[in-house]
Amino acid sequence: MAGKRVALALGSGGARGYAHIGVIDELNERGFEIVGIAGSSMGALVGGLQAAGKLDDFAEWAKSLTQRAILRLLDPKITAAGVLRAEKILDAVRDILGEVTIEELPIPYTAVSTDLLTGKSVWLQRGPVDAAIRASIAIPGVIVPHVLDGRLLADGGILDPLPMAPISAVNADLTIAVSLAGSESGGDEPEGDGPSATTEWLGRMWRSTTALFDAAQPDESADTLVDASKEMSVPRLGSFEVMNRTIDIAQAALARHTLAAYPPDVLIEVPRTACRSLEFHRAAEVIQVGRDLTAAVLDGLAKPETVSAEI
Fold first, then answer.
1. Pair type for strands 307-310 and 5-10
2. Per-residue CA distances from 218 to 45, 141, 204, 205, 207 (Å)
3. Residue 223 and residue 11: Cα distance in Å, rounded?
4. Most Cβ neighbours (<10 Å): which of 71, 80, 130, 211?
């Protein structure tokens, strides 16, 4: 390695974004200096907290969350332009962050969002950090879009799930991209006996919202893509899981295009099987996944070519 100044691009992917914390922890432990951060969605949240020096506080809070606590924090409002407002989660993040603007951060930081009216990607590099995070995490159809400076903003991952361009001009020795859309060996589903309580609850919320589904929607046992009795090898996906899977696939394709245009020095890929997008109660284990992947990559940095690691 020529040096240890690192610029990070942190990708979108819901609760898998906890892996970003593990990546940063491992970098810090090995003496790397983070000199620039760009993030989409959960990557924007983790990146903003890191730039503000508050990531350790957030990690401890996240590790304490249970499924019951997550359901309270999701703050449902089915009449809005999304099932969730997420304001309670943002209140907790604001309490950790304090009142800080992007201009005041010691590390250059970009939160990437999407303008739903113009259809363009938006780089948020000024103003309150919490507002930039709120704009970047508005998952389409799930979290209500955020109005900021006259723009209707939603999840940065819609157009830019792995924001490499904002860090391309950072004076760093290494650029590291952390993708949360790694391939799944054999197409396996995330580990576990079935959908989490959060996923099941959100599915019920969706089915009870007439703006999204017809009032005659079949019950949950029938709300699947396939008849399990005929196709035992095909997983049963509820309506929310179908939407979530569709977003994951689209973002993985967009991330591949970004990597071709802006190849990083180091690529860390967190597989979709690490956890489901709304399993925010699994912080400790997903953070460890990020640490393990990063350790594997850094141990192989003697090679001159771009290094990638995947579970």
1. unpaired
2. 37, 21, 11, 14, 9
3. 31
4. 130
pTM (whole model) above 0.70? yes
**Confidence check: pLDDT of 206 > 70:** no
Using DSSP bridges, classify how beta strands 5-10 and 174-182 pair: parallel, antiparallel or unpaired: parallel
**Residue 41 a catalytic site member:** yes
- Choosing from 12, 40, 41, 179, the catalytic residue is 41
Biggest CA pair distance of the chain:
63
Rounded to whole angstroms, the Cα distance separating 208 from 168 reads 45
Identify whether 155 is a catalytic site residue: yes
Handedness of CA 255, 56, 135, 144 (dihedral sign): positive
Phi-psi region of 121 (alpha: psi -120 to 50; beta: other; left: phi over 0): beta
Nearest to 270, CA basis, from 297, 290, 291, 300: 290
**Of 25, 155, 223, 265, catalytic:** 155
**What average pLDDT is seen over the chain?**
80
